[in-house]
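Q: Could you predict the 3D structure of Hydrolase?
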Amino acid sequence: MIRETLTIAVDFDGTIVEDEYPRIGRPIIFAFDTLKKLQENGHRLILWTYRKGSALQEAVKFCEENGIIFYAVNCSFPEEEFDSSHSRKIHADVFIDDRNIGGLKSWGEIYQQLIGGDAPARPKIQKKGLFSFLK
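A: Sure. Here are the predicted C-alpha cells for Hydrolase:
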C-alpha cells in the first residue's frame, strides 16, 4: 500500500469508460469508486486524454456527474497553459491507462495496489427469471 500523496494521471477512453470514442462509453466497473477513494485519501487526479474541444468537455462533465473533479486536465497543474514549444508530457507519479504494456489492470487491482484493503463490493444485479412475475 502506498501511503504518500500522489499525483495520478488517468486516461478516459478505455480506462474510466469503455472505449466508444468520440462517444462516451459505459463506466468501467469500480473506476469511479476507486477514483473517489483516491481523492478521499488526498491524491491529486489529472485527466490525461487524447480528447480535446467539445469531446474533452463532455468527458470532464461526465466525470463531474459521477463525482470526480480533476485537479487538472491535460496539464500538470491547473494554471499551466499549453505551449507547443514544450513537451506535452505531464508530471505525475502514476499513470493509469489502458495502453500500458500488459493492458489495464482491473480497477479492483488498482484499488488494492494504491489504497490497500478490499476493493469496493461489486453491485448485485437482480436477475429476473422466467416466472419472476409470480413472486
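Q: Anything worth pointing out?
A: The radius of gyration is 17 Å.
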